[in-house]
Design a protein that fits this description.
The chain is α+β, with helices and mostly antiparallel strands and 84 residues long. The protein is built from 2 helices and 4 strands. Strands 1-2-4-3 form a 4-stranded mixed beta sheet, with no helix packed on it.
Length: 84
């Protein structure tokens, strides 16, 4: 399992293209300090990375900076096994 971590410190939206590009190489991406010190919380729709599930923490609480964790979405297909 490959994990990528970075502290984005106010620049999440400006780093989105970079995150989208590197996401192809990682199973888990963890980001801290996603909320700006002064300003608006990024819209969750803008933070989505195709193929990943997004989990967030501390986005609505005051005096916190927020965390995003992306986990690679694994699609499973059911296979029937027939025995004779």
């Amino acid at each position: 399992m490959k994990i990528y971590y970075t502290n984005v410190d106010n620049s999440l939206l400006s780093k989105y293209d970079e995150l989208y590009t590197i996401s192809k190489d990682y199973d888990v991406i963890a980001l801290t300090e996603i909320k700006p010190k002064n300003g608006k919380i990024p819209e969750l729709e803008l933070l989505q990375i195709p193929g990943y599930d997004l989990y967030t923490s501390d986005l609505t609480q005051e005096n916190t900076r927020g965390t995003c964790i992306y986990t690679l979405r694994i699609s499973t297909t059911q296979t029937d096994i027939h025995t004779q």
